[in-house]
């Protein structure tokens, strides 16, 4: 579909752009556009969560394509500055915003397709896995959960989503080693569903989304909830405990020192 067939509707925030397909108006294309490589800060995740909530409450919207406006980058994961030398209150709000955004995306009643246009480590990978379908662009890109390589631990809900996506053994090896997969490797293990040429990414994502939208919304959403509801309920029940576990770990002196060195290295 030609670029001019995408209709801008002014649904644009500071870091999130929303476009409507002029032919298939029930489709919204949500583009992350934060200058830091779409690193997820508290404010950015809150904006993403609010954007999804508005689209869910818009009867004219039935499905979304989640992608990035930044060439070669889907999302570089969490914003490390939100976890370094911050107060307990600040890191609690940060982690809660991540939980809330993920629960919104993973449990959305909308049909969701990730159009992964580039690098997608850590939470970038988690966002993609949380969509109903994943299309990734060919190229020198990586996707995976490499938290252990930077001294972090992927929370249980990250790991359980990967188990549901790739299987127990693939997940055990991937998160234990912090493996980043090429698009072709990700396709082979089921981490993504399709790998396409960069110029075909959005059209292929749209093509897949329309397949999901052939089914009536309510039974499709109910079926999705039957598959995903138990994990969502597990996190809701353990949300405060999960925040406490994160805070206990992230504020350890050795972890903060490691974080400081990592952030300094990235600056250089």
UniProtKB/TrEMBL annotation:
Its main location: mitochondrion. It catalyses: (3Z)-decenoyl-CoA = (2E)-decenoyl-CoA; (2E)-tetradecenoyl-CoA = (3Z)-tetradecenoyl-CoA; (3Z)-octenoyl-CoA = (2E)-octenoyl-CoA; (3Z)-dodecenoyl-CoA = (2E)-dodecenoyl-CoA. GO terms for biological process: fatty acid beta-oxidation. Keywords: Acetylation, Fatty acid metabolism, Isomerase, Lipid metabolism, Mitochondrion, Transit peptide. InterPro entries: ClpP/crotonase-like_dom_sf, Enoyl-CoA_hydra/iso. One of its GO terms (molecular function) is delta(3)-delta(2)-enoyl-CoA isomerase activity. Pathway: Lipid metabolism; fatty acid beta-oxidation. It is found in: Mitochondrion matrix. GO terms for cellular component: mitochondrial matrix. The keyword Lipid metabolism applies. Key enzyme of fatty acid beta-oxidation. Able to isomerize both 3-cis (3Z) and 3-trans (3E) double bonds into the 2-trans (2E) form in a range of enoyl-CoA species, with a preference for (3Z)-enoyl-CoAs over (3E)-enoyl-CoAs. The catalytic efficiency of this enzyme is not affected by the fatty acyl chain length. Homotrimer. This is Enoyl-CoA delta isomerase 1, mitochondrial.
